[in-house]
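Hi R.,

Here's the input for the nicotinamide-adenine-dinucleotide complex you asked about:
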Amino acid sequence: MPRALLLENIDPVAAELLGAAGFEVESQRGALDEADLTAALDGVDVLGIRSKTQVTAEVLRARPGLAAIGAFCIGTNQIDLATAAGAGVAVFNAPYSNTRSVVEMALAEIICLARRLVDRDRALHAGSWDKSAAGSHEVRGRTLGIVGYGNIGSQLSVLAEALGMRVLFYDLEEKLALGNAQPCGSLEELLERSETVTLHVDGRAGNAGLFGAEQFARMRRRSLFLNLSRGFVVDHEALRDHVLSGHIAGAAVDVFPEEPREQGDPFTSVLRGLPNVILTPHIGGSTQEAQHDIGRFVAGKLVDYTGTGTTNLSVNLPTVALHGSSVARFALLHRNVPGVLARVDALVGEHGLNVDGQVLATRGELGYAVTDVSGPLPEDLLAALEALPEAVRLTVFARRAR
Ligand SMILES: NC(=O)c1ccc[n+]([C@@H]2O[C@H](COP(=O)([O-])OP(=O)(O)OC[C@H]3O[C@@H](n4cnc5c(N)ncnc54)[C@H](O)[C@@H]3O)[C@@H](O)[C@H]2O)c1
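And here is the predicted structure with nicotinamide-adenine-dinucleotide in place:
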């Protein structure tokens, strides 16, 4: 029976779907460090994680039996994707499932900051009646600058316009501007023209320290700042300085350079205790709706991959889906060099089998071919396929000949 290990409190729907597909599933609430993860992966075919578990090259090398990893979140830079691909380990994520949740939270925070709701709430809980319009603003008519116009940034653009905001955005790539949103030619231009700046860039290494003292200084006086993307993108000391000086009138931060590993672990940050600063424990995408959808989506990808070889939306392997059914199917991940497919088909023919269906896709140094054949797969054919010098991983999905 294939085994799945699910870490970090993944929605139970994932265990249900994997269980229904024949997996023996073990679920754990927390993340594991490198040594514990390596030990826990003994005999495991499929690993499910969220953003905290680091799947390093060492872990992958130590567990060559691992077939696939589900990142039950958006980001995948906690996984050494290149090593995983080279070892034939497919990685899947959920690029869309929690984007709406992040957008809704960003919108809520933009309004909270503009109205200084958190300070008013704290004061009233402390018994102080502080009724005043000073420093409170409508968001209607104000300019929102979105840095990173991807799945989240572009949805936020549409909903912010529905509230009457003017939207500017800046992205490294050419993007279709939705509604009346206007692209900016540079980050500097966006900072100078916006009254609220919100970061929705991805977690690529080059974004480390993207936003520091220079960028905060460029922002308009008394503007608002949000980061719901990645913690390492922002210099928190610089943010603190600009909040304390009054240059930044308020901030909402959901992601931190170092985040506690476990529920209830202590949290330290130079941003704690600042006025009109909302701190949340990386919950932008954490709604029950999003978690359920992520669980369903990623588990579905893992079931499809392990059951049929389909790699659609894999983040590190060539993407292929072969529809239809045949007597037997095998998938060969191989080095992307000329002639491999011809050798595969020749071997199949030499064993008196017909190729019923076949798809090939390549990605960088890897090729991935899924092949349906007309009869059960003889062991010596499988051995010959595995012995091809270009073979990285052979997976068999249906009957072997007895
Ligand atoms: N807070 C949460 O709970 C939570 C939940 C989901 C996603 N996220 C994070 O939100 C971020 C955005 O997610 P997404 O799904 O929209 O990603 P995405 O990949 O669809 O979009 C990211 C966009 O940022 C652009 N970009 C990257 N670096 C840039 C830079 N330096 N300047 C300008 N543009 C840049 C990219 O070209 C891309 O268009 C990611 O970092 C993701 O990890 C956080």
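One thing worth noting: The chain has a mean pLDDT of 96.

Cheers,
M.
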